[in-house]
Give the backbone structure.
Amino acid sequence: MFEVILYIATLLISITVVGGAADNGWLNSAFTRAFGGIGTQVVSLNFLNQYTNFETFIRGCINGQVGISGYAFLLAFGILLVVWANNIINYRQAIV
Amino acid sequence: MHEGGIGIAKKSNPLNPVQWNVLAIIFILGFMPFAVAFISNAGSSSEEQWLTSMELNDGNIQNFQDTSMWLENGGSNLTSWYQTYNMPQSGAGDDYSKLDCAYITNGVCEGYYNDTGPFSPEQWMSLNGNHQPFPNYNAYYTDDYFDIRSGLFGQSHHAVGSNNAYAGRSGSEIYSWLLSERFTNEIGQGETLDALRYWMTSGASYSCDGFAYSNLTFEGEITFLYGNESLTYTNFEFKTDNKFAYEAFSDVDGAWNAVCAYGFFVEFDFTGFESLEIHSFNGIGDWDNTSIILTLTNFVNTDSPDDFGSTQLPFAGSEGWNLGVQHREINPVEAGFLIKTGTLLLAVITLGVALASTPYWDPFKNFFKGMV
C-alpha cells in the first residue's frame, strides 16, 4: 500500500518534470521523454526510500502506529495527490 | 494595450506553470521529508546515558541452553587465504579439532573440507571438543568488562594448525547473529528503546603500535523478533576503524598501560517514531521475550579496498570475542504526544496545500502577487 502511494507521488513528479521540459522545447522525442520520465521517477523514488524516512512514516501511518493522526495525514496526502493528478491532466500544472 | 495585457496576466497568475510545478516538487521532495524527519525524531533522547542491556551470568550459560546462534560468518566466498591456511587434517583425537566450519549460511554450518557433513551440533561437538564453536554452541558467561557488560563468545572458526591461526581472513559479505532475550532482558519491562549499541572486540589484546589496524565501512540491519512476528530496520551505515584502545594494569610494570584489541561499536539509533513502533511491536516493551537478529554486511577496508583478506575483524578471528550490548531509552508518552501532534499538524498543512492547489482558493497566488 505504501509503495503505491510513493509510486503515485513520484509518478506525478516525473510527469510534471517531463511536461515542463517538453513545454520548453526539451525532450522532443518519445524516447527522451520516456527516458527522462523513468529516470526522474527512479531517482525521486530512491531519494524518498533511501535518504528519508518517508516510507517508514507512511508505513507506520497505515499500520496505525501514529493513531488517528496518521490516518488523517494519509487522507490529506491522498486528497493532495488526487488534486494534483487532476490539475496536471486538465491544466498541465500541479497547482492552479 | 500590450503592456496592459501583460500587467493583467502577471497579476492574475504571478508564476508560470513550470514554476508552479517546481513548487509542487519542492513540497514533496523538500518540505515533506524534512517535516517527517522532524516529527519522527520528536521525543528522541539527546542524552548520552547508555544502560546495560544484557543479563549478568556469573557462571557459564551451558551449551545449547540459549537459542542464540551464528547465522552467517562472512559469506560463502572461500578466499584463497582460507583454502591455503586451513587445510583439512586427518587423524583422531585432537586432530578432529582441525575440522572447521568454513562458512555458515542461515545458521547451518557448511563448507566442510572433509565433505562429510553436515553434522548435528552434538556430533560436531563430540568430534571437535568443547572449544570448537558450532553455530549454536553457546557456552559463555558475561562480565562487566571495560565498564560494559559483555560476554565472551566462541568464534565460528578457530586456530587451525600451528602456523596458520585463522583471523579475519574469510569473506567480507555478511555476518549475522541471532541474539536471544538474554541479550536484552536487562532492559526494563515496558521501557522504550531510543538506541542500541553493540560493542565487539577480539578476545585477545595486542600492542597499540606495530599491528595493522584499518578503517572500515559497512552496513547494518536489525530485526526484532517477538512471538511469530518480525520487525526489521535496514540501511544503517557505519564508518569506523578496528582499533579498540583501552588501559590495562600491568603487574610487571605496576602501571596502567595502553592496550589495544581489534574492535569497534555499532550503534542503531532509532527515530522517535521507530521507537514507538518497536514499543508496540514487542507487547509494549516485553524485553524478556524479544530476540534480535543483528546483521552486518558489505565490509570494505577503505585503506585497501581491493584486498579484504587480511583485514582483522573482532568476530572473524580465532578462539573468542567479546560482545557487549547497551541501550538508551525514551519516554514513550512524551514522544507519542509530539509525534501524533506533529502528524496532525502535517495533515492539516497537507490538506491546506491540496485546497490551495484548486482554483477555488488561491492563497499562493495572493502571496506571490505581493512579491512579483
Summary: Chain A touches chain B through 43 residues (CB under 8 Å). The radius of gyration of chain A is 15 Å.
